[in-house]
Amino acid sequence: MTKITRWYSNQLIPWLLPIIMIVFWQILGQFEIISSSILPTPLKVVDAAIQLTSSGKLQEHVLISTQRALIGFFIGGIIGFILGLLNGTIKFFERTTDTTMQMIRTIPHLALIPLVILWFGIGESAKIFLVALGVMFPVYINTFSGIQNVDRKLIEMGTVYGLSKWKLFVNIILPGSLSSILVGIRYALGVMWMSLIVAETIGADSGIGFMATSAREFMQMDIVVLTIVLYAILGKLSDVIAKLFEHHFLKWNPVYRKK
């Protein structure tokens, strides 16, 4: 098998099961085994996407949701990384803040909605806050865990060689924890879209969540399914980007070099 054939095979195999499921779904709908009022066929969903794209509404709502998600991701990601960094390297911060972080982490987004509305109203700030909150914890936990699990012998060796605290962090602690941090970012990207679904239930007048809510009220099942597919596509795209970052920043790691 040539390299080109192997590459195409590796790229196509992961999509084999989703394609089979879509074909099976279309057959069930085509022969009315499943009613279109319960689950419209893939072709009807595609038709709805074409109509919304032609009117420009689909691009507008996707762009607005993406902006909300990215702003929340960067805010929550930076806060989570800084807290994970402080708690992982300074015992005082770990003792004083980690327990609080773990308690807040277990609170469901839906339970916070009334409080968030009182704090921020129903504007963009409330939606971005919920996304940032959801993103913060995966980044925090994986940064904290990654730093804690760096090989202590390497840190001792760096200390013996007279490395300053900054050089010790840059050359040993950060590279050693980077794999865990990137896993946290990858997981946070998925949480970002799940948090956005919740966030866009707060008085939204635009975005993918608004499309889903409006379609539900008018029983437009093809658009409801379309919004679910959009979230799935955006989530997959985010995961692909995260993998590219892993391969770029962890080229020195044999595990990632082989992939």
From TrEMBL:
Membrane disposition: Multi-pass membrane protein
Domain ABC transmembrane type-1: 62-242
Cell location: Cell membrane
Predominant localisation class: membrane
Pfam families in the cross-refs: BPD_transp_1
RNA-binding among keywords: no
GO biological process: alkanesulfonate transmembrane transport
Top-level taxon: Bacteria
Transmembrane segments: 12-31, 69-90, 102-122, 128-147, 168-185, 223-245
A single GO cellular-component term on record: plasma membrane
SUPFAM superfamilies in alphabetical order: MetI-like (SSF161098)
Keywords carried by this UniProt record: Cell membrane, Membrane, Transmembrane, Transmembrane helix, Transport
Family that this chain belongs to: Belongs to the binding-protein-dependent transport system permease family.
UniProt xrefs under PANTHER family: ALIPHATIC SULFONATES TRANSPORT PERMEASE PROTEIN SSUC-RELATED, ALKANE SULFONATE ABC TRANSPORTER-RELATED, MEMBRANE SUBUNIT
UniProt protein name: ABC transporter permease subunit
Originating organism: Paenibacillus albiflavus
